[in-house]
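User: Hi! I have a protein structure encoded as tokens and I'd like to know what sequence might fold into it. I'm fairly new to this, so please keep things simple.
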């Protein structure tokens, strides 16, 4: 059970960042014998092509808030989940599982959580390492969008004829690794460090069933999470609403017993 609880909490580190990540491309036909290799690009050029593939920076900049209703599939059980993001201000996820409500919240100042299944009925401040890993979720555009303005750096870790691997390091030294398709420039997967039973593991998120929003960019309706091969779960988006009016007060940590 502890694995499940930690998995749900850790997922919130990706909720906002994943909102604009591109789907894995549809399998292409067999390449012609003379097909050229993917062009050599810098890390910045790859990221710019990725943002263009999503719909462009202008489309992303127009989204100031995002509300997502989804269902997590955990050990054969469905867990309703709601994630609300106010760009640059905060992200809050509430998940119901076995009659308990698990809450994780990130803001531009810090984070907090409440997890009755882990004995934390009252809201408590989030550990710094968990907050630093997941705070990029408060940005609708994710960690790669305007990364330099956020104090992050990127590098081209590797490439082959099928994909580019981009490593992003935040100013807090949190690391994200993106695998970007060399033909479509959409993200196939993202890997980051997470905690599972007190141990650091690679959390890999894959994306599928992307649908274009009215704002002109793609939102994934299917996500798969793998915690270092030890535990897997999935999430299916049911509803996405953009630019709703969000009261920033919802991100404040309630007092104990409230």
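Assistant: Happy to help. Inverse folding works backwards from shape to sequence: for each of the 258 positions I chose a residue that suits the local structure. Here it is:
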């Amino acid at each position: 059970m502890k694995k499940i609880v930690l998995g749900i909490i850790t997922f919130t580190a990706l909720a906002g960042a994943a909102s604009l990540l591109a789907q894995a491309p549809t399998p292409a036909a067999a390449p012609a014998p003379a097909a050229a290799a993917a062009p050599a690009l810098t890390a910045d050029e790859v990221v710019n092509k990725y943002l263009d593939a999503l719909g462009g920076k202008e489309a992303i900049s127009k989204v100031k808030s995002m509300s997502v209703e989804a269902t997590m599939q955990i050990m054969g059980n469905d867990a309703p989940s709601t994630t609300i993001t106010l760009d640059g201000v905060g992200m809050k996820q509430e998940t119901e599982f076995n009659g308990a409500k698990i809450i994780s919240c990130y803001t531009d100042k810090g984070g907090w959580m409440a997890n009755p299944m882990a004995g934390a009925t009252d809201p408590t401040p989030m550990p710094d390492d968990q907050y630093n890993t997941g705070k990029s979720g408060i940005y609708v555009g994710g960690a790669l969008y305007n990364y330099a303005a956020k104090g992050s750096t990127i590098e081209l870790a590797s490439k082959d004829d099928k994909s580019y691997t981009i490593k992003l390091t935040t100013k807090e030294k949190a690391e994200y690794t993106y695998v970007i398709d060399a033909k479509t420039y959409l993200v196939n997967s993202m890997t980051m460090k997470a905690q599972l039973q007190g141990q650091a593991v690679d959390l890999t998120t894959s994306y599928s069933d992307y649908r274009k929003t009215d704002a002109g960019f793609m939102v994934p309706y299917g996500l798969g999470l793998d915690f270092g091969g030890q535990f897997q779960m999935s999430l299916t988006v049911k509803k996405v609403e953009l630019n709703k009016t969000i009261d920033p007060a919802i991100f404040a940590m309630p007092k104990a017993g409230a």
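A useful reference point when you look it over: The domain at 2-22+42-243 is CATH 2.50.20.10 (outer membrane lipoprotein receptor (LolB), chain A). Feel free to ask if any position seems puzzling.
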